[in-house]
Structure formats: C-alpha cells, structure tokens
C-alpha cells in the first residue's frame, strides 16, 4: 500500500501542484520579487521596495526595511470598506450553555479602539512592552491588536504559567503594563489570573505601574488603588488612529524554552511577520472568504498569535475562538463546537487528537461534521495512527489533513503539504513552504543529500523569521546560528524521503515537547534544586501515549534525606510553583547518584534511555565514573 494519499480534487483552490512548483522555484530564484509581491496582501502606508536584506554570519535580518504599515489597521480597519458586516470572531465560552459572542469586523474595530484608548489612558505608548496574561477570549485578541495599533510590543504569557514565571517574563522585558482578567475558565475550573498577577507583582521587584483588568467571570478580586484599573472604567470610543510602524519595528515578544537557561524573549517584527502569517494562512489552509476557521490554540502560544490573532484577521476571515477544553463537558466538545458553528477548517494539536481518539468514535459521530473541509495539526509529531484516525473519523475520510511544522522562532508555517496540491503522507509534515530552504546535516555539520536523516537547518531567511532575543542578541546568535555556522538550526531531528517529504522526528536538544508545550529540561532542573532536600536533578523526556512526551526527573537528595512519596509530591508542587502546572513532572526517580563521566559531566543519553525503557541501546557506559550505577538506575526506574 502506498503511504501517500492523494488530495481530494477541488475546483477552486488557492494553489495547484503546478503553481506550487513554479512559485516555489521562483521564491528561491527571485526571493525579493516573490515576497514583494506577497507583501501586497497587506496595506502599506509606504510600500516597501526592499525585500530581504539578511546575513546569518554575522546575524542581521531585515525584510521590507523601507516599508511602513500597521498590522492592526491590516487586521481590522481596512476590512471596514467591504467587510464591516462580516463576522470576524465567534466566541464560544467554556460552558456549552454560556453566551456565544459574535463580532463583525465593525464590532471588532469598535472594541479594539476602546481597548487602545484604555491602554493610552494607562500611559502605554509606542515601543512600550505590555504583558498579557489572559484567557483565550475576545478581549485577549482585542488587547493584542490594540497594542499593535499603538505600536506597543505585546508579550503574552500563557495562563498556565505560575506567578514566578510571569514575574520573570515581566522583569526580563521591563514591562510596565499588564492586561489580565479576573479569572479564566477551563473545564469549569477557574484560573486565578488576577490573583496570580498580584502575586507576581507584589512579591517581586517588577516595573509594573498599571494593570488593566477585564471582568470575565465576575469573581470577587482585589484591586490595588492607583495601579489596577477595570477595563470598563478606562475604555472609551474616541478616535484612535493606527501608529505608522516601520516594517522592522517590533510587534511582539513571546517567551519560549530552549536547551539552557531561562526562557528567551523571541522577538518578531511587524512587516515580515505580517506578510508571513497572511501568506501561510492563505495557502496552507487554502482559505476562502466563506470559510469558518477554528484554531483551538491558546493565545498564550505562538499558534494562537499567528493563527488566531494575525493570520485569520489579516485575511479578513471568520473564525471561532474557544476558551474551553476538549474534554468538558464530555469528549465530544470539539465536534459539538464544529457542528454548532459550521466550522469548515479546524486546526488543533496531536495531543488533543490522541486523547480524543482514546475515548472512542461515538463522541465524534454524535455530531454532524459535514461543514468540515480541511483539518490541520500542529505542535508535535503526529503518529500515523492518530493522523489516520483524525482523517477517517472526524474528517469522514473525505477531507485533506495538513500536518504543519513550524516554531515560535519561525513565526508561521514552514513545512506542510498544500491541501489541494499535494499528496498527504501520514506522519510527515511534507514540503517546504515558499521561500523555505531546509537542509539536513549530520552532527559534524556535513550536508546530507537525498534520502537522509539528520538535524534540520534552514539555510536562507524568510520574512517571518524571529529577528533577535529581546535584549540579548548574542543569545540569539549562540542559540540558533552557532551550532552550524551560517545556518539557522531548528533543534529538530528530521528525515527526508525520496519524494522530498520531511518528517520531524522530535527535538535533538534538551528541549522536550509535553502536550505540544515546549519545555526546557534545564528549567525544570532549576526548579527542583530550589527544594532544600534536593542536591542535584537531571530531567529528560520519555514517550507518553497522550502527551507525546512526559517529564521524567532523576533527583539526588542531600545526605540523610530519604525519597518518599510525600517528598515526590512536594517536588511536583515546587515545579508547579516555579514554572506552572504545564511543567508538572510525571515521574520522580530518587537515586543515590547521577551517571557522570570522570570529568563530572552528566551522561544524559543514559538517563534518556532508561526513562524510555530502552536498555538495549545504552551505548558505551565504560566512561562512567561508577559503571554499577546503571544497574541501580534500571532497577529503580519509575513507571506508570
Ligand atoms: O519540535 C518541533 C515541534 O514543536 C517545536 C516548536 O515548538 P513551539 O515553538 O512551541 O511551536 C509550536 C507550534 C508551532 C518544533 O521545534 N513541532 C511543531 N510542529 C510540529 C512539530 N513536530 C512535528 N510535527 C509538527 N507538525
């Protein structure tokens, strides 16, 4: 049986196979010409004449550098001419019986102006950093757009991060303003957003001077005089023009985890990111004006930035935004929302697909999915079994599935098949998007040709590429461009088949992907060693049926301390406090020592193999200072 599945034939498509071939070739031979044309998807105050001006050694990247535009104008105001009455947002609340809020582009414009005026009243100006700690509700999207309108730089922090983590991100970008809600709601569980902001700001030395609070659940919360403001009190409808921005002015910062150190503030700029998200949305989802698009991501992650806020609205699309979870009130919630709002394009993560697959088909088939014409997956490798289920059951075997690979740093989709153009291969992301030049290299940097497996690099810049790490360009250079000089290294392992299709095998660095959430093992280790009983910790990933990867922690204790269930629970709580519930360890393995080389380096390869229950390939253990430790670690392996 062929692994490839032909796409359904579609009469009106944004891209045929022939067009892809021609446009992809042109995007490499004449990138400036190609991207200056794509840039016309947006309205510019001053149209750019320059395309990409970039170097990966030294690292300096610009696109459309002489262009001026505002992305809020592009996402909202410019649609007023012909789409004022078109639905922009359909908000589906956590509670299936709760109130659905529908906003036209005219409504969205009014809301964004109200929010921008509220931000101005707090003192937000062009270039100011504004931290958002918000649920995925209308005001979350509106707040991002209002920042863009004023030229302020938003930094959204996912609501599943703790006050400690929030404080760290506020301090790192010297953010004086926070936008939050009284609470969020996920599966009826309230998330104490405002209380967390209070803990972050009151217990740390932050520069915060203004907190804007949206009344969402109506919970009784504390308001600090002079610092905290109810949104309703500051919102006003007066005129609020869009600030003209240079294409290379920053649009947002988004913190993401890497192999070492604290999370990095990845910085995206205005013009290139706008063009990239607008173009990828148009092609990868083969978007048509009458589509109802739904991306289930939280706005706290890059997917929520690029394919909730910017990509769809830049294209004048109609989309659903959803605050809830896939399993409340039951495992049919996604399909119920699709039926209710007649969703035609649905974009979600493998972890949700796997979790729902496990619950059985009846939750899916209970709902009408005839409106669906395209399904998408993002965030982690999707195993072929889950891919097939997604297509066959929710997709009734009739709709194409796109498996889109990209990263916070890439700004938008980089590898995917195009829905009407390319055969699909379950488990493979597929082909490079326009302008994307993937390269596989071995561990020594040797370039691998043809059918191969190696480390995935990108050899040329693309408009949506992150420009720097906020406040630390050296770290940007070190993290992404120093492993293989002159190339952007993704941190992912990858295979290329005879058809040129790419399949991501997972991270090859010390980053793990837990339910599509990117986690630095070093961050979890730092959180663990803060506990007074812990001497040392080493954290690795292990395969997890639902989450993709789970968090496995090896912990050594101080002399005289014993590992107990109670202590393991304390350590879990410690990590939740330092990072947040998203980083809760799955397994804690107390050990008397960690495997080290004679020079004292922890041999993580061995720890990974033991956590994976893969003892056959432990490799050379003779360089260990204490070879007998391996047997003790295997014996003590924590499972289930
Ligand atoms: O390992 C890859 C995995 O997610 C990483 C990027 O994580 P983040 O920056 O949080 O962005 C996630 C949403 C774009 C990548 O380095 N990843 C993302 N999409 C896929 C994937 N792995 C396999 N297949 C994908 N489609």
Automatic annotation (TrEMBL):
EC number annotated for this UniProt entry: 6.2.1.1
Residue stretches making up the AMP-binding enzyme C-terminal domain: 523-601
Any one Pfam family match given in the protein's UniProt record, by short name: AMP-binding_C
Residues where CoA binds: 303, 327, 515, 576
Enzyme class label: ligase
Keywords recorded for this protein, A-Z: Acetylation, ATP-binding, Ligase, Magnesium, Metal-binding, Nucleotide-binding
Residues that bind Mg(2+): 529, 531, 534
Segments forming domain AMP-dependent synthetase/ligase: 77-458
GO molecular function per UniProt: acetate-CoA ligase activity
Domain Acetyl-coenzyme A synthetase N-terminal stretches: 20-75
Listed cofactors: Mg(2+)
NCBIfam families cross-referenced by the UniProt entry: Ac_CoA_lig_AcsA (TIGR02188), PRK00174.1 (NF001208)
Homology family: Belongs to the ATP-dependent AMP-binding enzyme family.
Function text: Catalyzes the conversion of acetate into acetyl-CoA (AcCoA), an essential intermediate at the junction of anabolic and catabolic pathways. AcsA undergoes a two-step reaction. In the first half reaction, AcsA combines acetate with ATP to form acetyl-adenylate (AcAMP) intermediate. In the second half reaction, it can then transfer the acetyl group from AcAMP to the sulfhydryl group of CoA, forming the product AcCoA.
Protein name from the UniProt record: Acetyl-coenzyme A synthetase
Source organism per UniProt: Alteriqipengyuania abyssalis
Taxonomic lineage: Bacteria, Pseudomonadati, Pseudomonadota, Alphaproteobacteria, Sphingomonadales
